[in-house]
Amino acid sequence: MERVEIKEVLSKFSLFRELNNQEIDKIIEISIPRDWKKGNHIFMQDEPIENVYFIVDGKIKIYKSDINGKEQIVAILKQGEMFPHVGFFRKGNYPAYSEALEDCTLVVVPINQFEKVLIANPELSIKVFKVLGEKIVDLQERLEAQILNNTYEQIIKLIVRLGNLHGQETADGKIVLKADFTNKDLANMIGTTRETVSRTLTKMKKKQLLEVTANGDMIYEKESLLDELI
Fold first, then answer.
1. Residue 128: which of 169, 88, 177, 181 has the closest Cα?
2. pLDDT value, residue 86
3. Can you name the residues that pair with 64 across neighbouring β-strands?
4. What's the pLDDT at 35?
5. In what order do the strands lie in the sheet containing 60-65?
6. Would you say 184 and 175 are in contact if contact means Cβ atoms under 8 Å apart?
7. Rounded distance, CA 222 to CA 175, Å?
8. Which pLDDT score, from 0 to 100, does residue 42 have?
9. Which of 62, 86, 130, 200 would bridge 75 by S-S if both were Cys, CB 3.0 to 4.6 A apart?
C-alpha cells in the first residue's frame, strides 16, 4: 500500500476526517500497512503495548482468556475502527487478545510516535478523548446489562448492539444481522453458555421477534426487541 493510499484510507476515519493535509501527513509518516491472515493474532494478551491499529479491511475479534482457557469476547471490530483504545496514554501490557476473523489489512501506528503527534495537535487529542468516552459509555452500558438484566434481556441487548454496529437496515425498517456470529460467540460476549443462547433464540423465534434465514442471518424489528425490555 502506497502512502497515497494510506492517506486516502485514514482520511475516511472519523478520527482524522477533519485534519488538513499537513496534519494527516504527520500520521502517514508513522503509519505502516500490514496484512494478517484469518486466524492469526495481531497481539497477545499481556504482551507490551506498542501499537495502535486502524482496520482498513476485514474483522477483528478482541477477547480475554482466563487461566482455564475460557474465552470472553470483548468486541468484534470492523473496517473503519481502531484498537486497542486502552493503548492511549497508558503504559503496560495488552489486556486482551486480538485475532483476525478473516483476512485483514491494518494500518499500524507505533503508540510512542502517535502520542508525539497528539501532543503537537491538541484538536486531534480532543477527538481521541471523544472516541475513548464513547467506548467508556459502551462498556458502562454492557456492565449495567450484566448487573441489572437477566440472561434473556442481556441477549436481546446484545443482538440490538451488534445490529447497531454491524447490521443493515432493510427497506421496511427491519435490521439484518449477518451470520458472522455463532451462538458460541454470542455466549462468550455475555458470559453464558451456547445452549442458553440457542434456547433463547428459539424462544424469540416462537414469539416472532426474530427470524433466522437458511444461511443464519438474523432479521428483526429493533423496536419489537426493545419492547421486551420494558
1. 88
2. 63
3. 72
4. 95
5. 41-43, 97-100, 60-65, 71-77
6. no
7. 7
8. 96
9. 62
Give the pLDDT confidence score for residue 196 in this predicted structure: 92
pTM: 0.70
CA 32/CA 11 separation, integer angstroms:
15
Q: Which residue has the cell 506498542?
A: 50
| Locus of grid cell 467506548 | 135
**How far is residue 15's CA from residue 169's CA, in Å, rounded to a whole number?**
25
Query: In the chain, which ranges are continuous DSSP H helix?
Result: 3-10, 21-29, 111-120, 122-148, 151-166, 183-190, 194-206, 222-227
The CA distance from 135 to 156, in Å, is 20
The ranges of the chain with pLDDT < 50 are none
Q: Which of 192, 184, 188, 171 is nearest to 216 (CA)?
A: 184
Residues 31, 9: contact at Cβ < 8 Å?
A: no
- pLDDT score, position 10: 84
Alpha-carbon distance 148 to 42, whole Å?
34
Report pLDDT digits (tens) over 43-89.
Answer: 998 899 899 899 999 989 999 887 777 788 888 888 888 888 765 55
Report CA-CA distances (Å) from 206 to 137, 172, 199, 212. 33, 21, 11, 11
Angstrom distances, CA of residue 142 to CA of 146, 147, 149: 6, 9, 10
